[in-house]
Amino acid sequence: MKPRPSPLQRLALPALAALTLFSALPAQAVGRIADVHVIDRDSGEVLPVIRHRGEHWVAGRPGARYAVSVRNTLDTRIMSVVSVDGVNVVSGETASWGQTGYVLSPWQQYDITGWRKSDAEVAAFHFTAAPASYAARTGRAAQVGVIGVALFREKVPEPAAIAPEPYSQAPLRERLGAAESAQAMNQDSSAAPGSAPPPPAPAEATAKAQLDGGLAREESVASRRMAPARPAPRLGTGHGEREGSWVGHTTFERRSQRPDELIRIRYDSRENLIAMGVIPPDAMPRRPNPFPGSPTPRYAPDPN
């Protein structure tokens, strides 16, 4: 019997969020079973996604608060396990697929705005120098600069078995017996003489090893191609001010232990992306601000 997942592995978003967080999606959202994009919360801009050598990049503004927006594109529930800088955004653990995540209803969109501190609060994400990032401050600076979203479909209950008609039982047994005999013959013919057939490799472990190896090779190739020195420290994600953000809990059984889709978005400052060759120097000019002397609109601050 499989162990039941803990309540933290099944965070449910309130129904109100499904109504208030629907909005027009950018053309550059990443993903198939979910649309994922990064939003600069201070400017309101959806950060353009740059595809470079097989990877997705966004340029962040140092100091700006941001959100990872996830929208379910299916008519069934999905679970999104989200990591920033290699850290699970809900539990604060070093991220892995099997951990806690957010459950999205059909077509629901939710903006993940920070590190979850409770059912009612988060500490806001903001772009900061890598040494000041939450990951670095907790001794895990190796993966700074990456956002990951592992998406899982929900397991559908199997329909109740229907007993076959009496006349079809004998032919079915004969067909099953013939199939088992053919399978045994195939196994014997593939084994070396005088040796036992090799045990099958665990499919999940093999697939995970292949994926991990592929990611490692991509990182190695990317690092060799991006040799030019950065003009400024890398960006990471800081542990900002507390904000209200409400969630509940629900049950969710994954259809598979492996993600149905795995999304990776890397980020750094615009200057660093130009230095690395991700953005051409003459691309993405800064937008002029028609009111440069006006402060960013804010709500009433707390008293001193």
Description:
Residues 223-234 have a biased composition (Low complexity). Residues 15-27, 181-207 and 220-227 have low confidence and may be disordered. This protein has 304 residues and is of the alpha+beta class. Strands 1, 3, 4, 6, 7, 8, 12, 14 and 15 form a nine-stranded mixed β-sheet that branches. A three-stranded antiparallel β-sheet has the order 2-5-9, with no helix packed on it. Strands 10-11-13 form a three-stranded antiparallel β-sheet, with no helix packed on it. β10 (114-116) and β11 (121-129) form a beta hairpin. It has a domain at 7-156 and 214-275. The protein has helices spanning 15-20, 134-137, 166-190, 203-225, 270-275; strands at 11-12, 34-40, 50-52, 55-60, 66-72, 78-84, 87-88, 102-104, 109-112, 114-116, 121-129, 146-153, 235-244, 248-249, 261-269. The protein contains five helices and 15 strands.
Keywords:
304 residues; alpha+beta; 9-stranded mixed β-sheet; 3-stranded antiparallel β-sheet; 5 helices; globular
Describe the biggest sheet? 9 strands, mixed
Could you tell me the radius of gyration in angstroms?
Answer: 24 Å
Secondary structure: helix percent: 10-25%
N-C termini distance: 55 Å
What order do the helices and strands come in, and which of them pair?
Elements: E1 11-12, H1 15-20, E2 34-40, E3 50-52, E4 55-60, E5 66-72, E6 78-84, E7 87-88, E8 102-104, E9 109-112, E10 114-116, E11 121-129, H2 134-137, E12 146-153, H3 166-190, H4 203-225, E13 235-244, E14 248-249, E15 261-269, H5 270-275
